[in-house]
Amino acid sequence: MHETSLIEFTLNAIQQRANQMKIKEVKEIGIVVGRLAAVPELLQTAFEIMKYDRPIFYHTVLHIDYRDIYFQCMDCNEKFTSDTYARAVCPKCKSANLERTSGEELYIDYFIPYE
Predict the structure, then answer these.
(1) What pairs with residue 80 in β-bridges?
(2) Is the pTM of this model over 0.70?
(3) Total domains, the chain
(4) Apex CA 109: angle with CA 106 and CA 113, to 5°?
(5) Domain that holds residue 30
(6) What's the CATH code of the domain at 19?
(7) Do β-strands 106-113 and 26-34 pair in parallel, antiparallel, or remain unpaired?
């Protein structure tokens, strides 16, 4: 499962930074995930399973900011979102000459320690 590797990488990165900051327990983690990058439900499930392998994350809550796929039409400059990537067309001029401007994001936005 792709999402398990992503959560493992996320937890490793946050744990490394938390250790540098002498943080003993993380309260919240926020990540940004584009629709094309991963399935949020699978990320959440992987997190709920993997957090119990590391005491620093026992009580941590994961917040996922889920981003839609956005396009810009190269013919008329219309910006729009679409539920599908494969069959997207501009709603204004019906062109398929599109540039994807969002939807592949995947990054750690923040983490909050217990005080």
Answers:
(1) 71
(2) yes
(3) 1
(4) 135
(5) 2-68+102-113
(6) 3.30.2320.50
(7) antiparallel
